[in-house]
Amino acid sequence: MDGAENLSKRQLQALQTREKLLNAGRTVFLENGFQKATMTQINKLAHTGYGTAYVYFKNKDELFTELIETIMQKMYDVAGLPFTPKTKEEAFTQIKKQTRLFMELSLEERQVMKIIKEAIGVSPIVAEKWSQIRARFISGITKDIEYVQKAGLARDDFHANLIAKGWFYMNEQLMWELVLGDIKEDVEAVSDHLTRLYTGGLYK
Which residue in 91, 101, 112, 135 is deepest, having the highest Cβ count within 10 Å? Predict the structure, then answer.
C-alpha cells in the first residue's frame, strides 16, 4: 500500500514539474523567440534542478511541440463541432462559424502563433509536428465533405480530400497573414469571403 502511495506522489510531482517546465518554456519562447530560447533558460525560470528539463524533454523542440499541442486543442475542439447540415444555408452558417472561431483563436494566441511560424522554418521537429496538425484537420474536413456529398448537398464530382486540402491551406495562409498583421481585413470579412468562395464552388 505504501509503495502505491509513494508512486502516486512521485507521479504527481512529475506532472507538476512537467507543467512548470511548460509554463516556463512558454514565457522564455515569448521573450526570446524560438531560435534564441534555450533549455537552460527554461530550467532556470522553472526553478528546477540542473538538467531537469532534459529528463522530461529531449530538447527545446520537443518541449515546444507539446506547447503547440496545448494551443491546438482549442482549434481541434472547433473542428470537431457536429457537422450535419440539412441545407446549403445551414452548411454555410456552420462553416462560417467554424472558420471565424479558428481565426479568432489564432489571434487570441497571436504571440505564440508567431513563434510557431518562426519555429516551423528552422526546426524539422516542429515542421513535422505542424504537418501532423495539418493532416488531422484535413482528415476531419474530408469527412465533412464526404458527408455533404452523400447527403446530396455538394457536388460529387470533386475529390473530397483534394478539396479539403485546398480549403485548409486557404484558411492557414490567411490565418498566418492575420496573425502577422499582413492584411487589414477583419476576421468577420475573412471568414465570410472564405466561406462564400468554398461553399459557392462545392455546394449545389
Answer: 91
pTM: 0.87
Residue range(s) in the chain whose domain bears CATH number 1.10.357.10: 60-202
Q: Which residue reads 530560447 in cell numbers?
A: 37
CB 190 within 8 A of CB 178: yes
DSSP secondary structure, 164-192, as one string: HHHHHHHHHHHHHHHHHT-----HHHHHH
Grid cell of 79 as nine digits? 473542428
CATH code, 60-202: 1.10.357.10
The span from the CA of 131 to the CA of 121, in Å, is 12
- For residue 62, the number of C-alpha atoms closer than 13 Å in the C-beta half-sphere is 10
Q: In the 8-state DSSP scheme, what is residue 58? A: S
Which residues does 102 contact at the CB level (< 8 Å), separation at least 6? 75, 78, 79, 171, 175
The three cell numbers locating residue 174 = 490567411
Rounded Cα distance, 21 and 42, in Å: 7
**Alpha helix stretches (DSSP H) within the chain:** 2-36, 39-46, 52-56, 60-79, 88-108, 110-122, 124-150, 160-180, 187-202
pLDDT tens-digit map of 31-69:
999 999 999 999 999 998 878 888 999 999 999 999 999
